[in-house]
Amino acid sequence: MLGASGVSGVPGRAMSRPATSLTNDRTRELAADMKRLLPLARRLSKPKPGEWLYQVTEQGQTFSEYIAANPVIPSKARRTVYIQPLGRFASIQRQVVSKVAKFLGLYYGLDVKVLDSLGLSLIPAGARRIHPEWENMQLKTGYILDKLLLPRMPKDAFAYVALTTTDLWPGEEWNYVFGSASPRHRVGVLSLHRYGNPAAGEKEYRLCLLRTLKTAAHETGHMFSMPHCPSYRCIMNGSNGISEADRKPIALCPQCLAKVCWATRCRPAARYRKLIDFYHANGLGHQEASCRLALRALSCNTVATSPAK
To answer: In the list 76, 149, 188, 269, which could disulfide-bond 181, CB 3.0-4.6 Å?
Structure first.
């Protein structure tokens, strides 16, 4: 395999809300919003050789199944996402990190804080390697999650996510991954290494930013106990390589959006309005247009069909 968004561990119950059905006012409202947005969603096509779902069988999960699974969700005591820079960052790369922090706060309706950087000297030789073909250094994701992040996790953290500019690999037969997360422990790591040079120009900067935003949203989504989405084009799709990752949208499909809004108690329309402002300010026009279309769909029963961006 090449690499995508790896997941280790299983959901825990430490911060979960009692399981419920789609019968109370809040869940009925979200289910209705989901139905309004479904005409905009695009079903995934039959996977081609080399794509994630061609190699991995995933069952998916409905909104009602998610609630019944007693997922890990934020609580009053733990509702902050901590961003942990790891290693050296150029000035423009730090700008990307700052925008990722703002974006995650809007995307998941949580507080976000960026911590001081940790040095790569904290990662021992046994958790590094030089790729045998590409000859670039890679860091082992399992060590970062279990040995570096978990012991340092702030008490009020819902999630603790490391960002690095160094390539990542999870071991075994993998070549690399863009990111990895442990749903049980709510820690994750992602790398900017394969996302292009943001200093090469405005187009390259936006591409690097968009790719990083996608991976950050995906890995954080796993910390809400959300599995990969094998049904619709969705940020929670798995991806096996950069071309497949670029094809998936930054948006949550209606089903996964309902899960996030239930877990965070945010309203879909308010969430879309905040994301529209962010996308507009950062020159992400396709993403802004997609949010505007979704916002219109939430206000009426008939919408024009268009894929999420």
So the answer is: 188
- State the burial class of residue 122 (Cβ atoms within 10 Å of its Cβ: 0-12, 13-18, 19+): middle
Residue 163: which H helix or E strand, with range?
Answer: strand 157-164
Q: Residue 89 corresponds to which tokens in the numbers above?
A: 């960052």
Q: What 8-state DSSP symbol labels residue 145?
A: I
pLDDT of 303 over the 50 cut: no
Residues with Cβ within 8 Å of residue 101, at least 6 apart in sequence: 81, 83, 112, 113, 114
pLDDT at 147: 97
Give the end-to-end CA distance of the chain in Å, rounded to a whole number: 26
Helix, strand, coil proportions of the chain in percent (round to 5)? 40, 15, 40
What pTM was estimated for this model as a whole?
A: 0.89
**Fold for domain 5-15+25-298?**
Collagenase (Catalytic Domain) (3.40.390)
Give per-residue pLDDT as tens, 254-299.
Answer: 999 999 999 999 999 999 999 999 999 999 999 999 999 999 999 9
85 contacts 45 by C-beta, under 8 angstroms: no
Domain ranges across the chain = 5-15+25-298
